[in-house]
Amino acid sequence: MSNGIEPTQTTVEPSVDAPKTPAMGEEVVIRLDNVNKWFGHFHVLKDINLDVRRGERVVVCGPSGSGKSTVIRCINRLEEHQQGDIIVNGVTLTNDVKAIEAIRKDVGMVFQSFNLFPHLTVLENLILGPIWVNKTPRKEAVDTAMYYLERVKIPEQASKYPGQLSGGQQQRVAIARSLCMKPSIMLFDEPTSALDPEMIKEVLDVMVELAQEGMTMICVTHEMGFARSVADTVVFMADGQIVEKNSPKELFANPQEERTRQFLSQIIQH
Amino acid sequence: MDGVLASLAQAAPFLLKGAAYTVVLSIGGMACGLVLGFLLALMRLSPLKLLRWPARVYVSFIRGTPLLVQLFIIYYGLPQAGIRLDPIPSALIGFSLNMAAYTSEILRGAIASIDRGQWEASYSIGMTPAQTMRRTILPQAARVALPALGNSFVSLVKDTSLAATIQVPELFRQAQLITARTYEVFTMYLAAAALYWVLSTALSWGQHRMEARATRHVRV
């Protein structure tokens, strides 16, 4: 495996070739400084240090239970950390509710289980935030929503309810819902893990396009093909720690840590 | 037979007037009970013990004592504490306080049944807890709660007959007053029963309409 790891059969290559545009700026938009978190007695995050620059595309991978989802859930305060600092767009996360809500408006999140609002149509899902959080006029919100539905290629589903869509379509709606808030940062929490294999690609394609446009992204995923083609940085986590962090090329070809090698070899075995 | 019809015709205006009170007490009690019940449900779901416990004790007390006794405490008992209320306000307060306890349990269960992901998705687009409750959680919880709330409502319609014991001129009281004059006990109480039946059936129908509306989004 010293000659690198090719994407596996189960990994879907995004169809769009993502040129590695050097869009990444110098400005650090997310900083995690010695972040620690416990669930009860379980030490789930241990001294996490991570800087993310504007436009940087970070993929976080690692075995389940390694704390990778918890890390990104701390960034928009769906989880509270107990030690260390998390600074998003220059604002340090505390219990200041207004600050948290401001950060959440600017940090979109896509969940493994979509979490669309089942009682609202696709269009209503998309305009809910703009109308009630940003007080956008309804017409403008609808126009924005339709624009993003075009972007994720399902404008014709606008008047359907989430339950009438396939998993891949639901996840694309969920991405559009986040984008309607015009965030500058997007967090993806295993966005394709709940999808059937044939639907993974349609969701990855949307994510690749976003990446190409210079969106700052942190993506927890097992899609190594995606990591390889769009990520600037791959972070490998295990047991609540960042074990290794590097460019995808380096990390896949020359993993420095035994734990990383172990994990990568397990991924490609099936 | 003609005699029965004639006495029914004579009694009709009184029975219908009584039925109107029944409707007012039912809808008033349910409406106030829902509002209070929602507040109690929020208290019970609160992370603060100081809010949770009073709500818990209240619900336990109301559910653990007969409605009839509660009405008596309000109408006959409160005057001794210097609070004198007319029959109809007494009944309305009694029914509201009683319904609040039952609806709070229904609403609490319904709210708690909504997936945590719905809260998280709402928070992730910057919604406040209040906005999330109003726009995301309640509409879904309502669908869960509606059948049980409907049952409570139908029970309330029938339980309003207890107000007869505190001088409220509602349907059952009217039937009692008429039978005291005419001794047509069987006919009048049957007529009153028929009217209760019509009222509760109409209300159940309304409830089904609302359920159908609330479940529009469920795939068929």
From TrEMBL, chain A:
Residues 30-264 form the ABC transporter domain. Residues 1-20 are annotated as: Disordered. CDD domains: ABC_HisP_GlnQ (cd03262). GO terms for molecular function: ABC-type amino acid transporter activity; ATP binding; ATP hydrolysis activity. It comes from Caenispirillum salinarum AK4. This is ABC-type polar amino acid transport system, ATPase component. Keywords: ATP-binding, Nucleotide-binding, Transport. It comes from the Bacteria. SMART domains: AAA (SM00382). Residues 1-13 have a biased composition (Polar residues). Belongs to the ABC transporter superfamily.
From TrEMBL, chain B:
Keywords: Amino-acid transport, Cell membrane, Membrane, Transmembrane, Transmembrane helix, Transport. This is Cystine ABC transporter, permease protein. It is a multi-pass membrane protein. Residues 19-207 form the ABC transmembrane type-1 domain. One of its GO terms (molecular function) is L-cystine transmembrane transporter activity. It comes from Caenispirillum salinarum AK4. The lineage of its organism: Bacteria, Pseudomonadati, Pseudomonadota, Alphaproteobacteria, Rhodospirillales. One of its GO terms (cellular component) is ATP-binding cassette (ABC) transporter complex. The chain crosses the membrane at residues 20-45, 57-78, 186-206. Pfam families: BPD_transp_1. InterPro entries: AA_ABC_transptr_permease_3TM (IPR010065), ArtM/GltK/GlnP/TcyL/YhdX-like (IPR043429), MetI-like (IPR000515), MetI-like_sf (IPR035906). Belongs to the binding-protein-dependent transport system permease family. HisMQ subfamily. It is found in: Cell inner membrane; Cell membrane.
